Amino acid sequence: MAKxxxxxxxxxxxxxxxxxxxxxxxxxxxxxxxxxxxxxxxFSNVAQKVAGRPGGYTRIIKLGTRVGDNAETALIxxxxxxxxxxxxxxxxxxxxxxxxxxGSRKKATEMKAEEAxxxxxxxxxxx
Length: 127
Prior knowledge:
- It contains 4 helices and 2 strands.
- The chain starts with a helix and ends with a helix.
- Mean pLDDT is 84; it is low at 90-95.
- By secondary structure, the protein is mainly alpha-helical.
């Protein structure tokens, strides 16, 4: 868990720098990573996916505790790269979202009205 939090502090500023594809930003990121392929991947694929996001590029998922020493374990991932959580993002939503205010009263009054109508019909049938 501690390493995941430390990695978040290290990675998020680099991803922010990758959003601006200039020679200076590439050199700054390369000074941290020391890997040309990682810098290329960061500036091409990752920067495109996080271009519209103002921050918070990583997610830490707690996995529980380790058997040997009971240490907390965690998994860190890039938010925009997980297909499980982002399934409905590109699809249009259904009808306009309804508020929950007054829904129970509305249903109750509709049910009372239906009951009243059915009672009136029964009285007319009996006469």
